[in-house]
Amino acid sequence: MSPISGADTGAEAAPPPLPKGVARNVQAIDGGSAWLEGLPRTLSELRDRWELDLDEPFAGGSCSWAGPVRTAAHEHAVLKVSFPHREAEGEAEALRFWDGAGAVRLLRATEDGFGLLLEACEPGDKLRDAAGEPEDLLTAGLEVLARLWGEEPEADLRLERLGAVTADWARLVRERRPRLRPDADPHLVDTAADLLESLPRTAERTVVLHGDFNPGNILAARRDPWLAIDPKPMLGDPGYDLWPLIMQLDPPLRLIDPRPTLRRRFGLAAEMLGEPAERLAAWSVARAVESAFDRFNVGDYPAGDAELEQAAVLADVAGL
């Protein structure tokens, strides 16, 4: 790594800027322009306070500066500074709770939790891009998920409750259908909205959810085969977490009839995670419909229609 700046050299070079695509995302958010203006100072302060050498940020992400750094002890780590928003509020809290069990370790955090120094996940290849049979890769992801869910959370853990979030989503789905997609299947949409309200209330256990457990957020590591990054954590029903992993590993909807593959995948997940397959599938229906209407709301109708199609297939698998 060729450092851009560091406390050991006394360099005062400006920290590397956000990638242009991420900067555009943040600029479109209320308060995003002000946050972007202050980001160089924030990075410089963290660089000096934590004695870091900064490199160019990673190209991905949606609303954070994240990139490799080297510490004063010459160890590799990752610095992440997020635009303050609801989904990022609990990241530090969840990483402390997991303490490396299934996820990267938190090394340091700012008081507000939006600035994080994280364990470097090396070599860092994504599960999404790994070679192998889809069900072997699914098994690897499920093993990580089982570790994240493995310990019962303390009562005072400061994370948002899943039911509060999905109640908001149910209201938005019902409000958006007649305005954004009035021709959508009313039974499918109403069923999904009802599930967003009822599933959290009928959960048999509560876990610390990752919240965005897609195969791009599961990276190859040295101390464990795979570790999760970038949680959007909540407390709630474990069944919520599975949908992106099931649907994004070798996407089954490319098959002529994806139902047998989906039933097999949900069956494997149920066996490994101890959750009913039908409940896991029902959560996937609810999340696919919610995501579709979120896409409609930003004008991405092709992606939204594809997720409604996905939800219809999932509903058949779930027997809804």
Strand arrangement in the largest pleated sheet: 1-2-3-4-6-5
Q: Could you list the spans in which at least 5 consecutive residues all have pLDDT below 50?
A: 1-11
Radius of gyration: 20 Å
Mean pLDDT: 92
Name of the CATH class of the largest domain: Alpha Beta
CATH H-level homologous superfamily name of the largest domain: Aminoglycoside phosphotransferase (APH), C-terminal lobe
Head-to-tail CA distance between termini = 52 Å
**What would CATH call the architecture of the largest domain?**
Alpha-Beta Complex
User: Total number of β-strand segments?
Assistant: 10
Overall geometry comes to: globular
Q: Secondary-structure element order, as H and E?
A: EHHEEEHEEHHHEEEEHHHH
Number of structurally distinct domains? 2
How would you summarize the topology of this molecule?
Layout: E1 5-6, H1 20-27, H2 32-49, E2 53-54, E3 64-70, E4 76-82, H3 91-98, E5 106-109, E6 115-119, H4 134-148, H5 162-180, H6 186-201, E7 207-209, E8 218-220, E9 226-228, E10 234-236, H7 243-248, H8 259-273, H9 277-297, H10 301-318
Antiparallel strand pairs: 1-2, 2-3, 3-4, 4-6, 5-6, 7-10, 8-9
Pfam families: APH_6_hur (PF04655)
Region (Disordered): 1-21
Protein name: Aminoglycoside/hydroxyurea antibiotic resistance kinase
